[in-house]
Amino acid sequence: MRATLEARRDLGPEYETALIESFVSRLDATIAHRVHAEMHAAGARGARKAGNPSIPIALGSMGFGIPLTAIAAAEAGSAGLLLAWGGIVAINVAHALSRRRERD
Description:
- The chain has helices at about 1-10, 15-50, 55-104.
- By secondary structure, it is mainly alpha-helical.
- The chain has two domains: about 1-50, no CATH class; about 50-104.
């Protein structure tokens, strides 16, 4: 940037547009290079960290299941309890089926 500003002082305002375009082009290339490097590094980290994505689903089901059980049983009795856990089971089954399709 300093070099661009010094060149503008040396060349004058008639070259300002060309100097700005050149600076923006170099800046864009630098940013693109950094983004590409970050994405490549994140991809490598993601490949190493790849675990079982079913674990968060299972833990989330249990975490939501406890309060839903209390609320459903208190408000709607056995029917509410069956409905709440039926929804949780449906989400887990759908996730398991989607994982099976991805592997095939």
